[in-house]
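cron nightly-structures :: item 1 of 1
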Amino acid sequence: AFESGIAYGLASGTFYAHDLRHAKITRADRPFFGRPIPGRTWEPSLLWQCKTPHAGQRGNLVIKAGPCLYGTAGSTLLALGDLSGDRRVVWTQNLGGQPSSLAAADDKLFVATAEGGILCFGAGEEKRHQRVSSEISPAQPTSKATPPETNPATNAGPADVNPWTDKVASLWPELPIKRGYAVVLGLRDGRLIDALLEQTKLRVIGVDDDAARIDRLRRRFHAAGCYGARVELFVGAPQTFALPPYLATLVTSEDPYAIVRAPAVGAGSLFALLHPYGGTLALELSVEAAAGFDDWARSGAPTNAVTSRSGPWHLLMRTGALPGSAPWTHEAADAARTFCSRDELVAAPLGFLWYGDLVGAPSHHCHTRVFKAVAGGRVYVLEPHQRTLCAYDAYTGLVLWTRRFKPYCIRYAALPEAVYVAAEGQCLVCDPETGATRQTFVVGTDGAVNPKDLLVDGDAIVIACGPREEREGERGYFDSTTLVCLDRATGELLWRREAQHRFTSSALAMADGLLFCADAPPPSSAPPAGPASDGAAPPTTTIRALKVRTGEEAWSRRVTYQGPLPALDDWLACAPAKMSLPPNVSARPFAMLFRIASTVWTKTLRDGCHYLRL
């Protein structure tokens, strides 16, 4: 927290105050690949620190409001007063959960907890509100004094059988996606929402233009403990209510005729709500009303729309990916290291599709390297420092799963049908929807069990391994001694190859049945190249093309460094569409036809080159 040139902080139950106006700046060079890089450190002077009785407990939230500092230690809220004097804790409060954020406004202090609670401190009478829970079904109200709303059409009470139960049970197996949001456009008594909550794990959004009806249903679901957690209801015209595109796993209605007969509603507007890869519009229609359903559905839906019928339901489904979209399966876009997405859909103007914290996903520090991939409508994030791999829905932001691993060295590639994870001498084939392991392949690297890179293309998996588990920033973090190739379907070991010097992840690519690699000494350890008169042989890099299925060498080319070794490492990438391979050695990128290693062009760069986009 900052005020009047003072920075206040809290760590492990101890408050700190630093003077920002009189900071000390000193020079501090840092090594980078064996070379010193000039740097500076900025260190403000410590004004005071105050150790509380809760010292040692985790907590770093702090806020300054009025004359006091407020912070957290464990599950305890602390108030530190008399900041210019003796500085003492004036009061504490147990929060009953893990605090996640603090805010001050209107002479009140607000605390949010990771468990979903909100607490407000200030003057006045204490009030307590019921905590909502996503685990409680509205069919099981917490109080008999607030029964479900009676069906106005049939006068059916709570004890009557829900007419939607069997219908939802017959619909559920037809839906390809089993998580996300159900959108109910048009309500009568809310019993369809009851059935969806009882029999699925979907979150439900309901829209109706009757404000009194929405108010009654809100109160009923709140009494059941699930409003705000699994149910949200809005007042508005169901036919034109604005919702984000690609949101809905299911779109349905308790009043389907008001939807299909509305002049403002076309199949295109409802189709826009459907989630790619199986979002479904399901309407219960009579035989007469259903006669023109297929024509109505096809009138505004694109080519990836499929209509069908299941029991009383007439279905319109969005199949497959969005036309023009493309995955990003590896850290460098693909196994060929093109650093270029093939997506043709995203274009300006851009807007927000969803926003908010990814609850349940690992947090990402601004200085932490994370490995991201996108495939099959899911975004994957590998956080090596936390040893976690998580997946969330690209179109809604809902976290699908999080998986923790023991080792620090983890590499992965995400394809629409599977996620491949290399760790501890194994290659795990994981389900992209749940993260569960489908198959386990033994890499068999004879001690080189730490993966440095993983490429998946065609029917093969290539893993680059090394014997040491370096941390990010340490020398050798991207270097490997062994290449291992596995059959993608069975995990059978196809071949393995040892490096003469070492392989580097920045110069490892695979495309069209060939694996390209550079075998060279690391820039920081090899002797620099001297002038020809001193008799020293200049260092070289050997670029090889290996047949993926057999490991046989298709061709190799030795490239000599011109001048001293650069601080930046070798790199190469592959452009399958052009059948070219642009490597970079000693700041001299050049392009070759990758089938025959014939040079197409060469360019000398003064400051080297990090990578190319192809």
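cron nightly-structures :: done
Helices lie at 165-171, 191-199, 211-223, 256-260, 267-271, 287-290, 293-300.
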